[in-house]
Structure formats: structure tokens, C-alpha cells
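Colleagues,

For the teaching module next term, I've prepared a clean inverse folding example: a structure given as C-alpha cells, and then the sequence designed for it. I'd like students to try predicting residues themselves before seeing the answer, so please don't circulate the second half yet.
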């Protein structure tokens, strides 16, 4: 029943209609039951839940960021790639949605079965090709006349870019993408049956002044073994319980120890007027507030950490640490 509240006059009119026979209570019940029936199209079977689609979107948002970094470095120009939508549709609908002549690369992703297709809009592909060849990123759509050299350059560029899917999928499974086919006509794709459900991730792509779409088509057969890994529960459990390998921890600690930080031994401070500061000349002496026999303060990133005494080590100026400074800012 609807949550709408009836007025007193509407209630009176309804009761009057029921009492005079103008309306039948059984007809009202049947009408309510009829509204609960939903039309289901078996050609557009929804085999992924909304939760799983959201997980796929998050995964490929990370993939889009990795592609942005990769193509920016390779093409040395402004690149922006972001996920526009994630949909589950029949494979034949995906084939109909792409241009008649476009750039299609298909990849095996062992140990998973099936292949993933990456469709790149010709405007984007030719802009990339022009930049790789030393041009300004001009896009000229002549996809039906690609030379073998152009195909090789494009396939190498997209194959190295697709390798970043391994990192994007690391939280759900380990894969080893391998380029197996390069096509320009979607009608030649016989990857799965026409009614097979596929997930299509569409990514807005900007290369310099050229824009277009990059689409990933992932069949259900590829994702079927790892569907349980797409749940929010799995992600939360995986992130909370996953521990770093000892070797990985050792590498992180080693890199942190090699980080460079500024260390300053402060001999003393003083205050002077702006007039005195402006009139300073070579040979003038500034008297500090600190006694020469007092220990100096050693600061890291501007934070007092140690007290020390000044001296020499060989022919170089040095300080000897005496003790930690307690109670200072950010003191651990």
C-alpha cells in the first residue's frame, strides 16, 4: 500500500463508493497484487549485485589512475582518465555500442578463463600514436588503413598500459595479462555467446586537446571464480587481517632509514631592531643571548630533540649529543 495519507473527505468518498457497489474491495486487492509483478528480461540477465558492481567500479577507478600516470609518462602531455560508468549488458549489445571501425585489443588473464577486451576510441588511439611518433597529438581517424608499423606501436603501448590491471586487481586475485589479439572491426569478435552477460567499464579519456572513451569489456565467465571476492565483507576482512610479509616490512624500514631529514644545531638567538638589521655591515658583531659554555639545542624539522656541546671532529665542526630534550613539541 502507498504511504499517502487520505483526507477525511477522501475517506468518506471511498466508504460511500464501497457501500453503493461502485468499487469492489477484491478488485482493489487484485490491483495492488498486480503492481508487485516486475517485468524481467532474460536477455539482460542481471548476474552481478549492486554491491559487486560498486566493487568493480572502485577497482577500475584505481586502474584509471594508474593508466593516467602511465600514459602521462609515455606521452609527456596532459592525460586524464576517469571511470564514467559500470554496466552489465549482453555481449551483443556491447558489440553494437562500439563504432564500426575502432581499436580493439583482447587479453588473456590467466589463471582466469576467458578474455577481456579493451576498446579504445580511434580519436584517442591516433592522438597517442601521433605523440609517440613525436607529433603534437593530432587525431586523424583512418582506422581502416592502419599499417603494420602503426598496429605494432599501438599494441605495444596498450599492452604495457593493460599490465597495470594486475596491480588494480591485486586485492581480489592475481592475474598475468597477455595481449592475444588486435582488431579494428568488432564484428570479428567471437569471444562469448551474444547473450552472455558482460560488465562494461567506460572511462572518460582526455589526451591533450583530444577526448574520447576507453571501454573495458569483462565477460561473466572471467569474473565468476572471483565473484565472492567482490563483496564489501571480503574487502573489509582482507584489508583488516592482511599482514605485511617480513621481507616487505624489512624493505620499508630500510627505505625509511635512508630518508634524509634536516638537522640544525642552534648556537643561540637574539633580537635586534629593524633599523640595526638594515645598518649591518661586514665586521659587525651580533651578541647572542646564549652563553658560550651552555649546551646548544639540536632541532629536527624545527622541533627541539637534543642538547649538545660544540666541538671539532678532525678538521670539521661537530656537536656531541648530551641528552634528549624532554617535554618539547611532538616529543615521543
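(Answer key — instructors only)
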Amino acid at each position: 500500500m502507498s504511504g499517502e495519507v487520505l483526507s477525511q473527505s477522501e475517506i468518506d468518498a471511498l466508504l460511500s463508493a464501497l457501500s453503493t457497489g461502485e468499487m469492489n474491495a477484491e478488485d482493489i486487492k487484485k490491483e495492488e497484487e498486480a503492481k508487485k509483478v516486475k517485468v524481467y528480461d532474460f536477455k539482460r540477465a542481471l548476474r552481478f549485485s549492486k554491491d559487486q558492481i560498486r566493487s568493480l567500479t572502485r577497482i577500475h577507478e584505481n586502474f584509471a589512475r594508474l593508466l593516467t600516470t602511465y600514459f602521462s609518462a609515455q606521452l609527456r602531455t596532459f592525460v586524464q582518465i576517469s571511470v564514467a560508468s559500470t554496466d552489465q549488458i549482453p555481449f551483443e549489445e556491447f558489440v553494437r555500442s562500439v563504432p564500426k571501425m575502432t581499436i580493439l585489443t583482447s587479453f588473456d588473464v590467466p589463471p582466469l578463463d576467458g578474455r577481456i577486451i579493451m576498446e579504445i576510441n580511434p580519436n584517442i588511439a591516433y592522438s597517442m600514436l601521433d605523440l609517440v611518433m613525436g607529433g603534437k597529438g593530432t587525431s586523424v581517424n583512418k582506422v581502416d588503413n592502419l599499417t603494420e608499423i602503426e598496429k605494432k606501436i599501438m599494441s605495444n603501448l596498450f599492452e604495457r598500459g593493460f599490465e597495470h590491471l594486475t596491480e588494480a586487481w591485486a586485492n581480489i586475485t592475481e592475474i598475468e595479462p597477455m595481449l592475444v589479439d588486435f582488431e579494428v572491426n568488432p564484428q570479428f569478435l567471437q569471444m562469448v555467446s551474444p547473450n552472455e552477460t558482460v560488465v562494461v567499464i567506460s572511462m572518460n579519456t582526455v589526451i591533450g586537446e583530444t577526448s574520447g572513451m576507453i571501454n573495458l569489456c569483462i565477460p561473466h565467465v572471467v569474473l565468476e571464480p572471483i565473484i565472492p571476492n567482490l563483496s564489501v565483507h571480503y574487502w573489509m576482512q582482507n584489508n583488516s587481517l592482511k599482514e605485511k610479509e617480513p621481507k616487505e616490512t624489512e624493505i620499508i624500514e630500510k627505505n625509511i632509514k635512508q630518508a634524509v631529514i634536516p638537522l640544525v644545531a642552534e648556537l643561540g638567538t637574539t633580537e635586534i631592531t629593524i633599523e640595526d638589521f638594515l645598518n649591518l655591515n661586514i665586521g659587525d658583531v651580533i651578541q647572542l643571548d646564549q652563553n658560550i659554555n651552555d649546551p646548544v639545542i639540536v632541532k629536527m624539522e624545527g622541533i627541539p630533540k637534543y642538547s649538545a656541546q660544540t666541538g671539532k671532529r678532525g678538521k670539521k665542526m661537530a656537536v656531541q649529543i648530551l641528552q634528549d630534550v624532554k617535554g618539547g613539541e611532538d616529543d615521543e
